[in-house]
Amino acid sequence: MHPTGSRKCLHCGDFFLPDARNRERQRYCVKPECRLVSRAASQAKWLAKPENADQWKGWENVQRVQEWRKANPGYSRRRGPRRRVALQDVSTSQPIVPQPKAEPVAEVALPAPCVALPNDWESQNPVLVGLIAQFAGVTLQEDIEPMLRHLQSRGRVILGIDVRPPDYAKTTDRSRTTPAHAGPV
Hints:
Structural class: mainly alpha
Oligomer: single chain
Shape: elongated
Strand content: under 5%
C-alpha cells in the first residue's frame, strides 16, 4: 500500500483511498467500469472453487425455483413507469366564456383595530384574505380573523396611524411593572 494509504486500482491504474471498513480487501476503485470488473473477477474467483462449481445445478434446485415462481407470479416481470392516478374525480372541461368587464371596485378599507370585524366576509379585500390563508395554511374564518386583526394593527403601527402607547397600568400582566424579587405583601 502507498504511504498515504492510497492503493492502485487493478483495472484503471489510478490511485484511490480504500474504504476504511474494507481496507485490506479492496483492490478496485469506485468508478462504475472498475466496479463491473471487480464484480466479474469476484464471481470468477467464487466459481473457480470446486465446491461452488455445481452450486445451483440439479433437479431439486430447478423444482424449488419453479414452485417459488408459481407462488409469486409476476415478481420478476419488468414494470414500466407507474401511472399516477389523481385522488380526485376528473372534471370535465368547460368552455371559457368571456365575461363582460365589470366596473373597477374600490378597495375596502379595514376597520379600526378596536372595532369588531363584520361577519360579512365579502366586504374584506379578497387578496388580503387569500394571502393570510395561503401563508398561515388555514381557511376557516375564525382562524383568519385574529390574524387579520393582528396584521391590521401592525400595519397601523408601521404607518404611524392612530398609534397609542399601551397603558401598562390597565394590563393584567404585572410582570412588567413589578420587580421579580418582590414577594407578596
